[in-house]
């Protein structure tokens, strides 16, 4: 498929992952067609600076209608702190992906977001951390895994230092996965997975 993939990015915070997605649109052959937020946040400012249409809403019917009107092909959750309703998950099945800052299925589920994830990694004594891109289902962080990137946990790591290294990998992995999904409508084969050890 040579056409540009039209994506929606959902964000709730500073939008640093959104910015990475904006910066890599040409490289990976997709277009950010709309940025959706559920609150006032810096991500909105980043979208507006890039002249990308925005929608701030908590009304899922309104959001779904906007996605349809803008001919969105893939929804990308990038730091979106809201639960996706089951009916949206079903309607957009295999067309919603999320980036999570752990090696799922470890350290996922309710309450596992942001710095809490890396605190859990350190508390568990894990030697490897990383991030996961997965399909979104009605179960929080429960959809099938598409790709993962890993980092070593250093002896002197804090949750903050570990989070910083994981975030670097997130910004590399997510655009690449979108580029691969552009090529196929099926789940990515295992050989596509990009796994880093740093």
The biggest sheet, with number of strands, parallel, antiparallel or mixed sense and barrel status, is:
7 strands, mixed
Average pLDDT reading: 90
> Into which percentage range does the β-strand content fall?
15-25%
Order of helices and strands: EHHEHEHEHEHEEH
Model regions low in confidence, pLDDT < 50 over at least 5 residues: 186-198
Strands side by side in the biggest sheet: 3-2-1-4-5-6-7
Index terms:
single chain; 198 residues; alpha/beta; Rossmann fold; seven-stranded mixed sheet; 7 helices; 7 strands; 22% strand; disordered C terminus
General description of the model:
There is one protein chain. The protein is built from 7 helices and 7 strands, in the order βααβαβαβαβαββα. With about 200 residues, the protein is of the alpha/beta class. It has a 7-stranded mixed sheet with strand order 3-2-1-4-5-6-7, sandwiched between helices. Helix 5 links the parallel strand 4 and strand 5 (about 95-100).
Concise overview:
By secondary structure, this protein is α/β, with parallel strands linked by helices.
């Amino acid at each position: 498929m040579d056409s540009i993939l039209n994506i929606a990015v959902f964000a709730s915070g500073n939008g640093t992952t959104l910015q990475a997605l904006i910066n890599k649109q040409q490289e990976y052959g997709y277009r950010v067609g709309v940025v959706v937020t559920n609150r006032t946040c810096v991500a909105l400012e980043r979208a507006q600076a890039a002249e990308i249409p925005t929608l701030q809403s908590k009304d899922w019917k309104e959001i779904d209608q906007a996605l349809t009107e803008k001919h969105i092909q893939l929804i990308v959750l990038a730091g979106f702190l809201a639960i996706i309703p089951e009916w949206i998950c079903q309607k957009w099945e295999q067309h919603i992906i999320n980036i999570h800052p752990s090696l799922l299925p470890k350290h996922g589920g309710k309450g596992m977001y942001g710095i809490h994830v890396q605190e859990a990694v350190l508390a568990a004594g894990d030697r490897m951390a990383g991030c996961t891109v997965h399909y979104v289902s009605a179960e929080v962080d429960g959809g099938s895994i598409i790709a993962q990137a890993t980092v070593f946990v250093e002896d002197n790591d804090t949750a903050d230092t570990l989070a910083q290294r994981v975030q670097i990998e997130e910004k590399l992995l997510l655009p690449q996965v979108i580029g691969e999904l552009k090529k196929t409508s099926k789940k990515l084969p295992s050989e596509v997975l990009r796994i880093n050890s740093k």
